[in-house]
Amino acid sequence: MFVGMGLVIVAELIAHLADNRLTYDLRIAVIKRLSQVPLGWFTARASGEVKQALQDDIATLHSLTAHFYTAVGRAAGAIVIAVIYLFVLDWRMAIFALLPFPGFFVFLRRAMKASNAHMQEFVARLGRINSATVEFAGGIPVIKAFGGASPVHAGYRDAVDGFASAFTDFTRPLVISMARAHALIAPVTVLGVVLASGAAFVAMGWMQPLDVLPFALVAPGICAPLLLLHTLLHDLQGATGAAQRVLALLDTPVLPQPAPGQPSHPEGNAVRFEQVGYAYAAEHQVLSGISFDMQPGTVTAVVGPSGSGKSTLARLLLRFFDPAQGRITLGGVDLRQITSATLYQRIGFVLQEVQLIHASVRENIALARPSATMQEIEAAARAAHIHDRILALPRGYESVVGEDAQLSGGERQRLSIARAVLLNPPILVLDEATASADVESEAFIQDALSRFARGRTLLVIAHRLDTIVHADHILVLRDGEIAQQGRHAQLLAEDGPYARLWQLGAYAGPMPKGELTC
Predict the structure, then answer these.
(1) Picking from 25-39, 137-151, 167-181, which range would have the lowest pLDDT averaged per residue?
(2) What is the pLDDT of residue 85?
(3) Domain 2-250, what fold?
(4) pLDDT interval class at 514 (50, 70, 90)
(5) C-beta pairs of 44-52 under 8 Å, 24+ apart in sequence
(6) pLDDT for the residue numbered 277
(7) Domain definitions of the chain by residue range
(8) CA-based end-to-end distance of the chain
């Protein structure tokens, strides 16, 4: 007995050590893979989907590596020993005592077959409800403001209804078959079979009444380890699905990088788009035949109606994804031949969707330059008009975003501008940086950007035409193609799409003076 206990303890220890190592290696591998995939991959997926694979699925694998094999060993060992013991006592009585168990496996097979038919839909619905939950939590202020009429609320309700339907389809045949299977091997059922068979054997003189007792004690005891074995095998199915999702994440195509020792170094900061095209899906062409140049120190503005491909064009320059057709060059070198580290030292960006990490304000500003001194960080914050607001936080620059640093949308945007100022790149991409800012924040952002943009190569995605009238080159996109290009006065004189956008914006009066912003 003591030897058996010792073996169990050693087996559990080894299994948990293996689980700890596997979990660690998987998390590191997933994080490494996610750091290499195109940034556009994240925009195409809900955060709940990534969270499920990164956290929930890896946690699910714990039961597989830490408990499955040792528990299966104990359960299977108990069953094998009990069956051998019964056959040694009397093989004829053993056969009758074990008659209910083959029936259990028949019903079990039916249950597994029925559940497998709906497993894929069940897992898919589970993933959707995870994503919908994250979106719902983020949209609670809107839902409360509009009395529950938000599309996010409707999407969450649809996800819940879909999951409930899939869960019902998955469990109904499973529950019916498993109820029959469990009833068939319930201890009272097995005991009844043993006593009936034993009575018949005694009546025929094949065995003594006392000889029936071991069968009455041991045979019903097989039920518990057998049900445990079934539960473990069912858990294995869930762990297998989790493992498949983690493996799918690890197989996500990475953003191609130059071969070691073969990266090219741009000569200068001129940018060129050469017949660039991009499609999110085969039937959804977003950009087509985009060609233009951005000379160092010039401002290129991109305007157009919603859905015309403006933000996609900006993200192609940032290499969130690669063009499906054509190429983009920086300093005469294809972006695909430039390492990500080199590219993001040359190109900074301030996007409409501000991304801040759960860390201190100081760490958020220094994200692109972790080695920056405190003086440099403060100088960048002053340039972005956010220094005084940071000092007003409970712990100043050490305040953690989302905890003791509760920032408005405009303040978060100025924090991202400070990050770009600290990086000090020669090329800057501005994607509707003031679209969601209030009037006061917009004034601060406009001033910070106009000062920071001087002397740099700018690509500006504009939602207000009066902010880009001084641009050196204006591109007008329509349905993913360049409908017009030129300077402000020239485009107005042509009385084309740009002039119509200008009229729709109700811009009046003389042409604005001052620096271009966004």
Answers:
(1) 137-151
(2) 92
(3) ABC transporter transmembrane region fold (1.20.1560)
(4) very low
(5) 44/280, 46/131, 46/134, 46/135, 47/131, 47/134, 48/127, 48/130, 48/131, 48/132, 48/133, 48/134, 48/135, 49/127, 49/130, 49/131, 50/249, 51/130, 51/134, 52/127, 52/130, 52/245
(6) 92
(7) 2-250, 271-504
(8) 77
Residue 63 neighbours by CB distance under 10 Å:
17
What pLDDT band is residue 374 in, cutting at 50, 70 and 90?
very high
Predicted local confidence at residue 311, as pLDDT? 85
What is the 8-class DSSP label of residue 210? Answer: G
Tokens of 516: 């271009």
Token output for 38: 């195109």
**Spatial strand order in the sheet of 284-294:** 284-294, 271-281, 325-330, 333-334
Q: Are strands 473-478 and 481-486 parallel, antiparallel or unpaired?
A: antiparallel
Residues 6 or more apart in contact with residue 194 via CB below 8 angstroms:
96, 97, 212, 215, 216, 219, 220
SS3 assignment, position 281 = strand
Question: Which tokens is 94 given?
Answer: 């053993």
Q: Which CATH class is domain 271-504?
A: alpha beta
How many CB atoms lie under 10 A from the CB of residue 284? 9
Task: Write the pLDDT tens digit of every residue in 170-203.
Answer: 777 777 777 778 888 888 888 898 899 889 988 8
Identify the band that residue 440 occupies on the pLDDT scale cut at 50, 70 and 90: low
Cα–Cα dist 77/225, whole Å: 9
φ, ψ for residue 222, nearest 5 deg: -70, -25
Answer whether 19's CB lies under 8 Å from 66's CB: yes
Per CATH, 2-250 and 271-504 having the same topology is answered no
Sign of CA dihedral 225, 231, 237, 240: negative
Q: Tokens representing 475?
A: 């591109």
Residue 35 has pLDDT above 70, yes or no: yes
Question: What's the pLDDT score for residue 436?
Answer: 55
CA-wise closest residue to 414 among 438, 464, 301: 438
List the structure tokens of 96: 């009758």
Query: Residue 417 is which amino acid?
Result: I
DSSP H stretches of helix in 98-186: 100-138, 140-145, 151-184
Tokens 């996500």 belong to residue: 252
